[in-house]
Amino acid sequence: NVYGDCGEWVERFKRKGRKWDYVVVDPPSTSIGKGGKRWSSLTHYPLLITSLMPLLPPSSTLLTISNLRSQPTSQFIEKVRKGIEDGGRQGRVVGRIGEGEDGGDLGVDKIIWVID
Q1: What does the alpha-carbon distance between residue 54 and residue 40 come to, in Å, rounded to a whole number?
Q2: Which helix (H) or strand (E) holds 111?
Q3: Total-model pTM
């Protein structure tokens, strides 16, 4: 487990050349970080995904989770896809865990991707 600011750890792992075959992304919907800087999954999720692309080798799995009830599942998927593509990669949805907001799971989307 890694505790602390995600952005700082991602940068450390990039410098060290670390790679993972499976990464879980489950940030809060919103938070206030160092220096009072606000993070919002609605606007920053694609940037987070882009930052993770160097840590994922080909054919790795990415589990993306969002509990932002005001965001439709289709919009969440497009934001993750944008982050993947902005990171110079391609990804495809290969599954879901639970029903997601479209099926009554309290607006929690859990989408499984394979990153090529």
Answers
A1: 22
A2: strand 109-115
A3: 0.88
Supply the DSSP string of 57-83, one letter for each residue.
Answer: -TTEEEEEEE--TTS-HHHHHHHHHHH
Residues 73-104 as b/e (b if ≥16 CB within 10 A, e otherwise) read beebbebbbebbeebebebeeeebeeebbeee
Q: What is the Cα–Cα distance from 21 to 87, expressed in whole angstroms?
A: 17
Predicted confidence (pLDDT) per residue in 13-26, tens digit: 999 999 999 999 99
Query: Which residue matches tokens 């599942």?
Result: 73
Distance CA 15, CA 107 (A): 36
Q: Which of 111, 114, 20, 113 is nearest to 66 (CA)?
A: 111
What is the dihedral sign for C-alpha 49, 50, 51, 54?
positive
Q: How confident is the model at residue 1 (pLDDT cuts 50, 70, 90)?
A: low
